[in-house]
Amino acid sequence: MSARGNIIDGFGYAKGLRERIAGRVATLKAEHGLTPCLVVVIVGEDPASQIYVKNKGETTKAVGMESRTIVLPADTTEADLLKLIGELNADTGVNGILVQLPLPAHMSSLKVIDAIDPLKDVDGFHVQNAGRLAVGLDAIVPCTPLGSLMLLKDALKTHDDGNLSGLNAVIVGRSNIVGKPMAQLLLNENCTVTIAHSRTANLPDLCRTADVLVAAVGRPKFIQGDWVKDGAYVIDVGINRIEVDGKNKIVGDVDFDAALPRATAITPVPKGVGPMTIACLLNNTLQAACVQHGLPVPGDL
Ligand SMILES: Nc1nc(=O)c2c([nH]1)NC[C@@H]1CN(c3ccc(C(=O)N[C@@H](CCC(=O)O)C(=O)O)cc3)C=[N+]21
Prior knowledge:
Elements: E1 6-7, H1 10-32, E2 37-43, H2 47-62, E3 66-72, H3 78-90, E4 96-99, H4 109-115, H5 127-135, H6 143-159, E5 168-172, H7 179-188, E6 192-196, H8 203-207, E7 212-215, E8 233-236, E9 240-244, E10 247-251, H9 256-259, E11 265-266, H10 273-292
Parallel strand pairs: 1-11, 2-3, 2-4, 5-6, 5-7, 7-8, 8-11
Antiparallel strand pairs: 9-10
Function: Catalyzes the oxidation of 5,10-methylenetetrahydrofolate to 5,10-methenyltetrahydrofolate and then the hydrolysis of 5,10-methenyltetrahydrofolate to 10-formyltetrahydrofolate.
GO biological process, one term: purine nucleotide biosynthetic process
Pathway: One-carbon metabolism; tetrahydrofolate interconversion
């Protein structure tokens, strides 16, 4: 039986990933004169979103890519945003387009995402990418599930035989951006996958069946320690800002301290899945640039 209480170093893994991406960006530049370009569009002035978008821009530049950020006022019309996306789609210098979510209430995020060229949809949110992932075709895979799978596989290799096949996976959360694509990825790895949500009956007992437990509900410390099966692998996707003793703190969807001694390995928040999301976004942008220029797509990193 493997040891318990191992903390998965998502920050360190993401750092290594970014270094390998930087190497590939340098090669692409030297051999093909190509610098991948990611454009991030943000509508409105939500302070948390702005900090996040600023970090993304800096990380993009740090791996040698071009980063452009377009800030639109909160009262921008949907038509104007769709027009901008059309222009970015047509601009061959732009390889990746990310429209920061959530959008203001007067816009339909599905309609906006649908307007993005699927080949430039580096979030992997377009129905074409979601559908391609579901049927097993090449697709741009959403960054958070992809980064989560990388950490999970690495932890399984470190603490076990590295094999996901036949494991029971429970994903708590059914969003299009995390829960559903995570389920597709784990199905591809031959897990037995259950997606739980707010209407699930007896969630604690269901979670206790999970060899792999993925928490993506967006509620601070929602998953209790005694919901975690002895020896489980726990991936905490939640990023919740809460106030403790007058100070802002970020916590996950799992009660980390209570889950830690039960889990074989668990991701912390922060420095778990979050940094992997950004690293995977950069890798998706690099791969998109290669596809758009008819160049071979580099393999796994
Ligand atoms: N179209 C779109 N695509 C996204 O991928 C997207 C989005 N919209 N809207 C907002 C969410 C949120 N998100 C995060 C990614 C990384 C961290 C991250 O790196 N967090 C660090 C630092 C946390 C901190 O200290 O603030 C960590 O967890 O260690 C956080 C949040 C991507 N999102």
